[in-house]
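Assess this today:

___
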Amino acid sequence: MKEQIPRYILLPQRKFIIMFVMFTLCSSLLYNQTTTKIYITDVQKTAENLYSITLNDLIIIKEIKVKKTKIGQREIVNIEFPTYISKRGKAYPQVTILDKNLNDKIIKVITSGKPETVSATTVQPKFKIGKYSPYRRSTSSLKVFASIIFDDVIEIECKIMHGRRGPWISWPSRKDETTGKWVKQVVFKSKEYQKQIEQELLNRYKVGVEEEVEE
């Protein structure tokens, strides 16, 4: 004859299981909310296997290369964002996707040619300074290698330069070998949003310069 577990022991166990399930569901919902604030609101094919996308109607990322590989009947699609190649031949990606869901979403939008349908007005992504690495050569106009992380899912490289009119921010671009002109690879549609980001970078740069003078 099996020994029955008293009811007063089972009830707390059931309550614990129910609370655990509810906590897991809430955590999942919160996670999904934090990873869906970046939307691809436009996609354009600019050349063969070359695309540009717009994020939240604010940030345009150009010259995204699409590479397709066939393995049997299956086609694998990979995307490559603008990359800076140094004189020594070292590659420095200018855009890095930090979230697999966003990467998959970008591939889907590019391959289908259809941007996401967003019912509500897209919000400005939260941003923070990621990399911040001062460049110590005093004769160079380049002062800092930096990056901005948007909503913890995408990171865009930039540089703090210093010219005759003071410090300014340089976003990813490349020099056209034919015309000699610089081609922008990241463009902000909202100048106000761009100014917010750049001001945060410049404020940090200013603090760093003042600390060096005090030393």
